[in-house]
Description:
The protein is mainly α. Helix content is about 85%, strand content about 0%. It has helices spanning about 5-10, 15-80, 85-110, 120-135. The protein starts with a helix and ends in a 6-residue tail after the last helix. The relative contact order is 0.11.
Amino acid sequence: MLPESTHNGLREQPMGELFKQLSDDLSTLVRQELTLARVEMAEKGKKAGVGVGMFGGAGIVALLALGALTTCLIAALATGMELWLAALIVTVVYAAVGGVIAMNAKNRVAEATPPVPEQTVETVKEDAQWAKTQLPSGKR
């Protein structure tokens, strides 16, 4: 609620000036909401970028390990068992490690969703509700 002195001051101002002030205030509000949305979306984009980067890192690690370490492990295991069984064991271990990395990456990407500026949506709703309360009753 406006203080009594401000309320009386508004009554004495011409309608044109009041509409201009309302227009200026509305323009400022819209600019501020757009700025908030831009900042919020940039923050979510950064979080998603980290998760996507982790997916890429998981792929690179898997490829590097696949070449050198696979051959070494299979050869070491093959000294005590059949070659095919040694290869199967190494494959299962690599699949488990890749799965753990992928789940961590998925969680990072999920932190950035939904990709909407939630805070901005809420403040716009609050602004709309406030604007409705400012209209004189019976003139909606």
